[in-house]
Each structure stands twice: as C-alpha cells, then as structure tokens.
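Incident log, structure service

09:12 report received: a user says their structure output differs between two submissions of the same chain.
09:20 pulled the input from the user's history:
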Amino acid sequence: MSLPSTKRSSVTRTAGRLLLGAFLLLAGISHLTVSRMAFRAQVPRWVPVDADFVVLSSGIVEITLGLALLLLVRRQVFVGVVVAVFFLLVFPGNISQLVTHTDSFGLNTDLARGIRLLFQPLLVVWALWSTGAWSAIRNRPRQA
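09:34 re-ran on a clean worker, output below:
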C-alpha cells in the first residue's frame, strides 16, 4: 500500500526537519567540545568579540535550534525561518575562511572552501522546505 503523494511529501519533509535538527544539535555540541578549536579558526578576525565567546554562543544557539526543530512541531514554520536566518548570519564567517585562506575542518584549499560556500544556500533552503516555511511564505496572503 503506497501513501498518497501529499502524505509522502509530509513524511519526507518531517524526516528532513528531524535530520536537520539532529545535524544542528551535533554541530552545537561539537562547538562546545571536540571541535572548539577548529570553530575558533573560522571566526573572522574582524568580529569585535572574543572568538571563543563566538564559538561557545553559536554552539548554544545551534543546540537550541536543533532541539527546536526536533521538538517544537507546532512552531516549525517559525523555527524554520529562524534557522534559515541563522545560516545566513554565519555565512560571512564561511566567506572569511575562503578569503583569508584559513584551514579548518579539512578545508585546506580554496577549492574546498569554495565548494563549502555552495552548500550554505542549500542549508537555508533545507530549513525553509523541511519546516513548511517555504510554502507558508509563498502562500501567505498579499497585502494591498
């Protein structure tokens, strides 16, 4: 017995939301533990805050967002927008890593760092799609 197409789509989106939540949760935990120094290397020098503070606070934010994706099902559209904005806010750090030729997480060539940049927009789309935020934004009533 196969599921109707809308049900399959819903199951796929839910799986995508849960996977993204787990990804953010694990990334956040690694900010606070095993990958703390690697994340410090990614903080641009022009950020006027201590790099360790940036790493720790962004780790806490990622843990919070990961848990929100996993647990706040009724608020998933809002959470999806917040996660997408978060991915946009950390994008300058990824650009800085390319421009300053900073090695971190095995990204030790400009090609590898450039390829990584291509994935950031996919994370934004993933957050919006998997939470239904993309559809909610597209289908919201237009104001005159």
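09:41 both user submissions now match this output. Likely a transient worker issue. Closing.
09:42 reviewer note: The chain has six helices and no strands. The chain has a mean pLDDT of 85.
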